[in-house]
Amino acid sequence: MPPYILRLAFMIEFLVALVAIFETWSIVGGQSHLDLMPWYAKLCFVMGLALVTVMATAAAVSHEHAWNAKTIACVLLALMLAAGMGATTYYFHLHENDDQALGGDDNSITSLDWREPVR
Questions:
Q1: Confidence tier at 95 by pLDDT (50, 70, 90)
Q2: How far is CA 104 from the centre of its chain?
Q3: By three-state DSSP, how is residue 100 classified?
Q4: Which of 48, 66, 84, 114 stands 20 to 30 A from 58 (CA)?
């Protein structure tokens, strides 16, 4: 197989992995928690996981045995990135109400009485 076909396949795999990882993370972790995260945290995790996925595929294709040291190392890196994604999502789940507490007491009830005061 010509090398440019493999490169094209790896680029397509990378782009599909980006979309799949974002969709899966928003379904599993909850879109509301992802909305609270800074953009660079989401970008680093998703790009890293997509890159490790393509690297694992390239390592599996380039060697005689699919499960070799490079493939296993990529799988371990992917698991570490997935654990980091889970820990970050859990952190933002625990701290999602902290911003509202700083803004004031939004849960207070205000009543207005239009009756004449008693003298």
A1: confident
A2: 30
A3: helix
A4: 84
For residue 19 the two structure tokens come to 């979309």
Contact 89, 33 (CB under 8 A): yes
pTM of the model: 0.77
Q: What does residue 107 show for φ and ψ, rounded to 5 degrees?
A: -95, 10
Q: Which two tokens stand for residue 15?
A: 């782009």
- Could you read off the pLDDT of 35-74 as tens digits, one per residue? 989 999 999 999 999 999 999 999 999 988 999 999 999 9
Enclosing H/E stretch for 117? none
Helix (H, G, I), strand (E, B) or coil at 64: coil
Span 10-24, pLDDT tens digits: 999 999 999 999 999
Parse the chain into domains and list their residue ranges. 3-96
SS3 at position 1 = coil
